[in-house]
Specification:
mainly alpha; about 65% helix
């Protein structure tokens, strides 16, 4: 009687069949084996930290703590790769790893803005941009096609990571793990209660660290913990089995005939040339703010849409023959140069409009976007020398991320307050708008020479509401709000009362 040899354990596939029409084809098969127990533990730890520290109603240091915990969990998962079947493509060049590390650090820097700035609009913009930098850190991407695919992959990986993490859980040790967690909770609760009752200072510190265990808090923990577990698990899934997007970078895609793109873009170039000529002829009208008010929005849209047109031309215009390359340099070069002139006109009108009507958040953002447009257009002109420029999308995104971080460092609400607190001819200071700014504006307001003491108290009283009067715990602590509280307190914590200024305004 023969004994059959022991069969090697074969894990069922962790992925479904991907259609060949998917953007990444069949080259992203996922990890060959279930997640290691170290990976599962790191993802669970990041989810627990997020549930305990992430504030949803405001920016604060809890966002930075969560970002660092998630980054550490993904790094641990990358280091703790299990041996066995690996993805089809595992080779990575050193410079690719360096770029992905730079994108990861940029993501942490963007999420750290809430620790220093309290402006909600600014932090919301940082969080949106952080989703792009995080996708580039996880999946890479060099061309516009691969960057778009890379941006969608973390959302897909979040769902694919659920069975991958579930199969990595130990089957026999589940009861022991639950028992250990239960015993730990009982010990902490019992001895923590005794120590809190024995010392009032320890009880106060414990109350600040541990929130009230109400029903809403428990549901908040479940929601944040589950969402973070999926997000960090998907990031670990991508790091353990990174997709190969190089094929998307190498393929040119379908091209059109040279006249199909050259004729429409030549006509558009002629239209831009006519507009620039009219602007040069009617120079006497360019100094009026009324004209600037009616034009800079339209010009900003023109510049932004032209960038999309240039990207489409770079994608579909053929470049094999000498004639094709010459057309690209002439037509796209002329269109880019004229668009630079239009962008300069838009910037001039924004400056005129701001000088006349004051600085607002929207106008500041549009001004920064126009400067970024100009930088990208200059990159397009530089790329036109060699026709191909695989570095351009990444450099343009990096410039945008750097500009946003620089804007956060410059404190935009403080810049607006400093600018608008100065009298401008017969135009009165808009105290209502100053009072609607975030607490980041308080340091600039207290130093403004254009505000009288009554006006300053009026604005500070309007700001001394909401998030400023509500104390922060360690999760939602922000340097901007803390500085605002201290400065407002030195002026007696005024309330909103502008009645003495009714006649003066």
């Amino acid at each position: 009687m023969s004994i059959a040899p022991a069969q090697k354990q074969v894990f069922p596939p962790l992925h479904g069949p991907w259609p060949a029409t998917a953007p990444w084809g069949r080259q992203w098969i996922g990890p060959g084996r279930p997640a290691s127990i170290v990976t599962v533990a790191s993802v669970a730890g990041a989810a627990a930290i997020a549930a305990l520290s992430l504030p949803l109603d405001r920016a604060g240091v809890g966002w930075l703590v969560t970002a660092i915990a998630a980054m550490a969990a993904v790094f641990i998962a990358d280091v703790a790769k299990t041996r066995g079947p690996q993805p089809l493509v595992t080779h990575r060049r050193g410079n690719v790893r360096t770029e992905q590390l730079a994108w990861a650090l940029a993501t942490v820097a963007l999420l750290a803005v809430g620790t220093f700035r309290s402006a909600g609009w600014l932090y919301a913009l940082c969080v949106v941009v952080a989703t792009l930098t995080a996708a580039l850190a996880l999946a890479g991407g060099r061309s516009m096609r691969s960057i778009f695919v890379a941006y969608t992959m973390p959302y897909i990986a979040a769902f694919r990571a659920v069975p991958w993490l579930a199969r990595g859980l130990p089957r026999k040790g589940n009861v022991r793990i639950l028992t250990t967690a239960l015993v730990s909770a009982v010990l902490l609760l019992a001895f923590g209660s005794l120590l809190a009752s024995a010392d009032a200072r320890f009880a106060t510190a414990l109350e600040r660290l541990v929130p009230d265990l109400g029903v809403d808090t428990v549901f908040r923990w479940i929601f944040l913990g589950g969402f973070t577990a999926m997000a960090v698990g998907g990031a670990a899934f991508l790091r353990v089995a990174p997709p190969d997007l190089s094929k998307l970078d190498r393929t040119e895609g379908r091209k059109v005939h040279r006249w199909e793109w050259a004729v429409p873009l030549s006509l558009l170039t002629a239209l831009f040339a006519a507009f620039v000529a009219v602007q040069m002829i009617n120079t006497e009208m360019q100094g009026y703010a009324s004209e600037a008010r009616s034009g800079f929005w339209q010009l900003s849209w023109v510049v932004g849409l032209t960038l999309l047109v240039l990207a489409g031309a770079a994608r579909w215009a053929p470049r094999q023959g000498r004639t094709d390359r010459l057309l690209i340099r002439i037509v796209l070069g002329a269109l880019t140069a004229l668009t630079l002139v239009i962008a300069a006109t838009a910037i001039q009108r924004i400056v005129l409009y701001t000088n006349e009507y004051g600085l607002t958040r929207l106008r500041l953002l549009v001004f920064c976007c126009e400067l970024w447009f100009v930088f990208v257009l200059l990159l397009v002109l530089i790329a036109g020398r060699r026709i191909r420029a695989p570095w351009l999308p990444r450099v343009a995104i990096a410039a945008g991320v750097g500009a946003l971080i620089a804007l956060a460092v410059a404190n935009p609400d403080g810049m607006i307050a400093e600018r608008n607190a100065q009298p401008n001819g017969d135009r009165p200071i808009d105290l209502s708008y100053l009072g609607d700014l975030s607490p980041d504006a308080v340091p600039a307001l207290t130093k403004a020479d254009g505000l009288t003491e009554e006006q300053l108290l009026c604005v500070l009283g309007r700001l001394n509401t909401g998030l400023v009067t509500t104390s922060d715990d360690w999760r939602s602590w922000s340097l901007g709000r803390q500085q605002a509280r201290v400065l407002i307190a030195t002026h007696g914590n005024p309330t909103f009362d502008c009645t003495p200024l009714t006649s003066g305004r």
